Amino acid sequence: MPIQIALNHRQQQVLRATVRHYIATAEPVGSNVLVREYNMSVSSATIRNAMGMLEREGLLYQPHVSAGRVPSDSGYRLYVDHLMQPTLDTQAARTLNERLRVNWSLEAVLHGAAQILSTLSGYITLVTLPIKGQTEVRHIQLMQVDAQQIMLIVVTDSYETQSVLVSLSQPDDENDAELRERELQVLSNFLNEALQGKSLSDIGNLDWSVLGQQFDRYSHSMTTMLQQLAQRATQTNAPTQLMISGVSEVLRQPEFTELTQLQNLLSLLESQQDQLLPLFGEQISDERDRQVNVLIGAENPLEPMQSCSLISSTYSRGHQAVGSIGVLGPTRMAYESTIALVEATADYLSEAIS
User: Fold this and answer.
1) Could you tell me which of 129, 156, 117 has the C-alpha nearest to residue 140?
2) Most exposed among 100, 107, 237, 295, judged by the fewest C-beta atoms under 10 Å?
3) Briefly, what is this protein's role (predicted)?
């Protein structure tokens, strides 16, 4: 949530420098460090006064009496909202571009994106798989298996393939293979025209009266196959699954050396994924509305995540958002580069599946 605190230019400078130095070093920041390393062009006393004001406003705090200051959740929030500009490193952009512009299967694309994002960011990557109920028909093909069986093959708009094998109610005459092939091709063309772009869960309700008498002998088999596909789509429209990558990356962060905290976080990731999914927010209907969402520290409603930040965005098929991708790491996160990485990865995913 936005922080409504008015800071003058000097205070903004001090907060920005304090956040950046703490992110880089994980060490409390003193006024002498800021004067020496950030070209403040003022005395240590002036910096101390500014840091004292920021502490009174709850944007900084001292972990120990004799220590320097570190950013609070509110300090990070103000920094993210007002004092930084997301920046994508050129090499990171090149890596994303080269490794995600490959025509793999959908699962391979998502898995690759999760691995790349966790490697580049140094944090845990979370990817929700596309919502099954929104999967649409891209192409349909009927194939003769033998005199008594035909197969319906459906390719979805996410390039997943499903097939159903059904026995004919009236076995074909084996001496008329060429005619059967033509009939199945004509019927395939009809099905593509009738079903392309429709949801898998809706294709069991096709009106076969428009086919005419030449396809009567296929109608029972087709109805059976389409109903099976529709039933399968309904059954798989379960809660969206979560793909997780990069746990080993985040273990290198000093914030996760405390065993109990780490165990609680790993338990959440491994066995309580249903609680994580709502944090990605409701799916938006138009990719033009998409933005990166940042939850910092106590803004996360789940206790094991309240020392973490979650940065997420949605990826889309066409103009429809179908899933989310994000990173989870300590609040001492490199927000500028990580926000840009998440946004770029979501863009590449959208391109890959569209």
Assistant:
1) 156
2) 107
3) Negative regulator of class I heat shock genes (grpE-dnaK-dnaJ and groELS operons). Prevents heat-shock induction of these operons.
